[in-house]
Every structure is written in structure tokens, then in C-alpha cells.
Amino acid sequence: TLAAGPVNVGTTGTTSTAALGLASVQINQQATVTASNLSTTPFAGVQLSSAAGSQLAVNNNQTSASSTGNSVANTVQLIATNIASTTGDGNAIAAMSNLQSNVVTGTASAEVGTGTASATPLVGVQVGGDVTASSSLTVSGNDVNATALGNTGANQMAVTGTNLSSAAPTVATGLSSTASSGGAVTSEFALANFQNDAVSVERTATASNVVVGVNTTGAVTSSDLTVANNQVTAEARNNQISNTASLTGFATLSTSAGLVNTQNATTAVTATVTAASTGVVAADDITSANVTIDSNTVQGLAMGSSASNSLTASAAVLSGNPLTTGTQSGVASTN
């Protein structure tokens, strides 16, 4: 028999008062996080004077610059045959609360690439002459990215059992949240998340002068050139979270469950891709050759807050607490 109190998350702390409770707090008040990956030579590549009857491949390489203020993965798992709660005020069987906050003076940034524009691929093949005699040059599946994140995480609550019966007449799902101060959940199964990104200047991600592909200063004759499935990306984001709560496997399920997600951002975010390209460049004629440019991505993405919230329950007999008025399950999200 389990009994405890509700879950709250706010700007300075968090509580998870429950028989099974998890509270996580990450507060960054000092460190401006920056990452830089700049080079004047290829990150991954082949350089040669000419190619005749050659098989060359530059595949599945990754180069990145990533800065993150706070990152977390929280899990609460409950496996039991029979679960029951006692009468009480705001009892909780399992609760999880997560707080992530960046309140920093300065600029948070991530930068990848090179400061000087060049035709030589940072990832790929550079040929100083002709490509001939059934050569095969492939540049595929490479990833060049700059990522600047404020708060990122995943919260998972998984409950499995056979019978769950609530005897707490005052336990309903009470959900409340505001963008600036957080939220609260009052239910037998409760998950609350609050993320705050408040860097004083801005959060930036930059990919500059990134060339992915094949460059030759001569002709291409009777050969195959392929540049496919490569990515050049810059992403800047304030908050990202995945919240999942599930109650599964029950023959009888009578309880209350709630999930509240709050995300607040006052930091400007900027993602910039400059002079980036994927493809094939030949300075001379292409004759009797196969050239394939397919499914490449060059992208700049700036986003405030993103969230995935999921609350699921499954049972042969599913009902809310019959002694409780109001809603027995729910999700609230504010950003």
C-alpha cells in the first residue's frame, strides 16, 4: 500500500513526493557554453593528382561542433502484480520532476567549417587532373553539423502490472503551468517538466564554407561520380524534451495520471549556413560518364522550444477513481 504527496517544478527547484519519486535539477548560472570545430584542411577526404580505373569512397563520416547547456535522461520504472493506494490528500504512487535552467550572461555558440572559402571539399574527393577509365568516386552518408542547444532531455515513466486500484477519494488529476514559473501535477502518477533558457545575448549555430562532394580540375570520362545522402546542418534551439508516461498490462486499472510540460525561452536563437554545398564540380568536359547527386541536405534550423508529450493507459477494465470528481487523466503543455 503506497501513499505520498504531489509533484511540483519551479524556477529554483523541484519536488517529487511519492512512494517512488525522482527529482532532477540542472541549473547553469555561470558557464557560457561554446564549441568550435574549424579546419583549413579536409575533415575526411582523398586528394590525388588524377584517377584512372580507380575506386574511391568517402562514406559515413561525421564532424560536428555541439554546445549544450543542460542534458538529462530520467527514468522511473515500476513493475508489480498488484498496486493499491490508500485514502489521502493528493497521494502519489510514482512521481517524476525535472528542472533545467540556463541563466547566463554572454553568447552560447557552436561553429563548424572553415573561415576561408575553398573549392576543395572539407569532406570528399579532390582530383588535381582527369578522372578516366571507369573510375568510381563516391561521397555518401556524411554529416557535418553545428548544434547549439539550451536544454535537452528525455523523461520516461513506465508502469506495468496486473491490478491497480485506487482508494484515495481526493486524488484527481490537477494540472497547472505557466511559462515563467513552471507547473504542478496532483495525481497518483505524475510527471512534471520545466525548462528555462535565458542566455543574455543569443544562442547561435554556424556552418561556414563547408563543401561536401567531388571536385576535379580536369575532365571526367567514362566514369561514375556519386554524391548522395550527405548533410550539412546548423541548428540552434532553446528547449527540447520528450515526456512519456505509460500504464500498461493491467487487467484492472483505476487511478489518476497527469503530465505537465512547461518551456520558457527569452534567448534569441540564430542558425546560419554560409557558402555550403554538396555536389560535383568538374573544370573540364564530362563525357560518357554517370553523375548522381541525390538526397543531400543543406539546412539551417532555428527553433524556440519543441516537445513530445505522451500519456498512455491500457487495461481490460479502465476507469477513473469513481469517488473523485473532475478529470482522471490529462496532459498540459506550455511554451
Describe this structure in words.
The protein is built from no helices and 29 strands. The protein is elongated and about 80 Å long. The protein is an all-beta fold. It starts with 6 loop residues before the first strand and ends with a strand. Strand 1 (7-9) and strand 2 (14-16) form a beta hairpin. It has strands at residues 7-9, 14-16, 20-28, 34-38, 44-48, 51-52, 55-59, 62-85, 94-104, 107-113, 123-127, 131-132, 136-140, 143-166, 174-178, 182-186, 189-199, 202-208, 211-216, 220-221, 224-228, 231-254, 257-265, 268-274, 277-282, 286-287, 290-294, 297-319, 329-334. The model is unreliable at 1-5, 169-175 and 322-329 (pLDDT under 50). It has a five-stranded parallel sheet with strand order 3-9-17-23-29, with no helix packed on it. The chain has a four-stranded antiparallel sheet with strand order 2-1-16-15, with no helix packed on it. Strands 4-10-18-24 form a four-stranded parallel sheet, with no helix packed on it.
Shape: elongated
| Helix-strand string | EEEEEEEEEEEEEEEEEEEEEEEEEEEEE
| Residue share in β-strands | over 45%
Q: Main β-sheet: number of strands, strand sense, barrel status?
A: 5 strands, parallel
How many DSSP E strands?
29
Low-confidence stretches: 1-5, 169-175, 322-329
Helix share, percent: under 10%
Terminus-to-terminus distance: 37 Å
The total count of helices amounts to 0
Q: Give the mean pLDDT.
A: 86
Q: Give the strand line-up of the largest sheet.
A: 3-9-17-23-29
Radius of gyration: 27 Å
Classification by helices and strands:
mainly beta
